[in-house]
Amino acid sequence: MRRIVLSLLVFVALFVFAPTAFASNNNDDLCTPAYQLTHLGQCPLNGPGGRVEMLQRYELPEDLPAANIQSLKTPPPLANKNYARVIKPNAPIYASVDDALANKEKRKSGKGFIYVTYDYPITRNGEDFFQINVGEFVRRADIANVTPSKFEGVVVTRQPERPFGWILAAVQPRLNPNLYGQLNADVPKLNRYDMVQVYDRLKVGNKEWLLIGRNQWIEHDPYYIALVEVQPMPPQVLGKWIAVNLYEQTMSVYENDRMVYASLVSSGIGVWNTRPGIFQVYEKLDSTPMSGAFAADASDYYSLEDVPWTMYFDKTIALHGAYWHDLFGYQQSHGCVNLAPKDSLWLFKWAELGTIVYVYDPSGRTPTTSFGGGP
Known about the structure:
Blueprint lengths: L1 H16 L2 H5 L8 H6 L11 H9 L10 E2 L12 E4 L5 E2 L3 H5 L5 E2 L4 E5 L4 E3 L2 E7 L2 E4 L3 E4 L7 E3 L7 E4 L27 E3 L2 E5 L2 E7 L2 E4 L5 E4 L11 E6 L4 E6 L2 E7 L12 E4 L2 E10 L9 E13 L2 E5 L15 E3 L1 H10 L5 E5 L15
Parallel strand pairs: 5-22, 17-25, 23-24
Antiparallel strand pairs: 1-10, 2-5, 2-9, 3-4, 6-7, 7-8, 10-19, 11-12, 11-16, 13-14, 14-15, 17-18, 18-19, 20-25, 21-22, 22-23
């Protein structure tokens, strides 16, 4: 009995007379702003001194260093092509306008994800028709015009000193790295395709927060932001190589160990994932058609004409321009790595047969096998 009483007395003494540092880690009320300033990292950031500590630890200068990047400043992409989606399932395709007027079909377009390129309209009997291939015409009512994305990546003029990236969905920075923290109303909301630099990172619970400006924190969530960081050269790689980050949905381009270009991508989604690995560009095509289906019922059928600036690197998987969407930064494809048209043109001119393509997923979630192989 005496041993139990003595043990209790020792415990009470330790609790009552414990050093402030010990107590401060377990009781937010003891973390005064004055204490927290002299004991950085020992108190919760959401305590009474959290704001003071954040200012001390993560204060940035008034004039933030600019990124060593510049835009391409190129004309509109692929202006000599007109693109359209076939919006009518099994739309009739005719060998001539006369056949169209007589409803004499050559074939049907099929059902699915179908895009065509077309010439100027031909008007007959008050109705417009478009030629989509040699000896193939469709009605205007059966297609809808598509405007390719104007997004473009950046030329990197000097090795980046810090991570940078693009905002993917509108977000308002917060004063503190806290989902429920106060929004920074003194800065404008960030919108899609805005570029930011990352000046510091902080793990709070199971979430990482990024400091992108003075008192500007955003959550490192791939829905909101896609980051680019300098990657070490893969083993036995020399010269030109391309890195595709499947988690961030970004691409960084290198000459030896120096980054020279960076942009967003859209890789394979779901069972059509783009598999990680080290590959080589084995075929380059200015323009090529792509079609196919993987589902047993062909419910995922696709047919795309004139896919621009295509570079195959892993069997039927390629880097290529995508004129049919503007969702770069998110997974979208049947396995290929989609690029905005301007990016695909730049990369096509820069890369050579044999250029290494390093596909990786820092999260480790992407399977190393893939059922994909399409746009």
